[in-house]
Amino acid sequence: MTIERLQTYIDEMQEIGEEIRTFVAGMSYDDFAGNLLAQRGIGMNLLMIGEASMQLAKEFPEFVADHPDIPWIKIRGMRNRIAHGYRSISMETLWDTVQTSIPDLLDKLHSLRNWRAQGE
Question: What pTM was estimated for this model as a whole?
Answer without folding.
Answer: 0.89
